[in-house]
Amino acid sequence: MSEQTPISQADWNERVELAEKMIPLIGKLRRENNVVVSIFGRLLVTATEIDIIKSHRYARRITEHELPLSQTLPILEELVKMDLGTVSIDLGALATKFEAEGGDLRTFLDRELDDVIGTADKTPQTDIVLYGFGRIGRLLARILLARQAMYNGPRLRAIVVRKNGDQDLEKRASLLRRDSVHGAFEGSITVDEEKNIIWANGTPIQVIYSSDPATVDYTEYGINDAIVVDNTGRWRDRAGLEQHLKSKGVARVLLTAPGKGDIKNVVYGVNQKDITPEDQILSAASCTTNAITPVLKVLDEKWGVNYGHVETVHSFTNDQNLIDNFHKGARRGRAATLNMVITETGAAKAVSKALPQFEGKLTGSSIRVPTPDVSMAVLNLNMVNDVTVEDVNDYIRQVSLVSELRQQIDYIKSPEVVSTDFVGSTHAGVVDGLATIAKGKQLVLYVWYDNEFGYSNQVIRIVEEMAGARPKVRPMRLELTEV
Length: 483
What we know:
The chain is of the alpha/beta class. The chain contains 13 helices and 21 strands. Helix content is 32%, strand content 22%.
């Protein structure tokens, strides 16, 4: 990678001026056309001038040089004149492609965006109900509300919980508003105690009190053909989850835990194309399975994987005790904030539910550690073909930048990163390039993942796929065979 060129004060001021001109254009595209703009994956939805400048410098990871703001601003100025529908536009990739091809800018854009011109307001809206409102439920709500503001797609309509006292509504709203790990909610939250509604950024979220998933009448609240996202973990088999389908207004169910029996376990980016309209009940697998499966897919297709072991170093979770006390699970009764706790994980075996070729190839175990969020998976693999650190890192880096798995796999190579640096990552997993070990057919990869927020983003991607509301991406990302 080329060295960074120092920026003079005059050059910096010029960049700030160009970035200031871009902000209202980005906002206009989002508000009027449901168009989200990014620079090689770095979203510019709520970007400041500094964010925009840094995102253009980030382009060095791909193009070996910075992306000039003077090159992207004219593209934005043309985009706001076009009758675009819902789409995610990678401004960096678009500018790079235009620079290589040349010609007339508007002719180029008409060709690249042909299938999204004149498609405004055609994204289907689907009602979403969150059954349960714990750690994952509240993050799902945050993401849904943010994406509602960007795209005209799935709408969060209600949450279903068991009532815990007279102040239940206010407390749940407060937990949505403030989070010790993920920070404050971006926006405004108020409550209507008379109607049991939490108002979040202008969206009314109906709070329904029930302990029986089969008896809720969602149609009473104007909710129809809803996707229920069950994040309680209480039921994981088909018989238990089918209870949701007995309630009026429910069309489909998504479980935020590994499903048992014949339930499809979906890892977005890997096997979401297996979802059919007939699938009424689906699973989003686990956070660890989501973190490792995309990486394993890439490695297997490039070099082949004979077998391996996955060791997860996982943050403690709510099912552990804060201090020593009785727990039905082995070792989980010991104080979570004071101990490393060896426990089991089914994540390695669950990989084969998304990638059948891994059946019987992986073993796995887990160590719970005294951190509240962000975990790590260590992949110790025996490969079919020889590998080197340089080849593996370079390929993973390219996959993370330009491939169809860009939202699932990220890559970093920094000597100072630690777990808290990955809080808020929207990726399923982040490969740590400095930790890669390779010798002959032996490969060890370290994959960081925000087991709360990264996983929740994967869940929402499945929700949008089920709703037929995944935004198109332009220019189209490369298939793995093209990287």
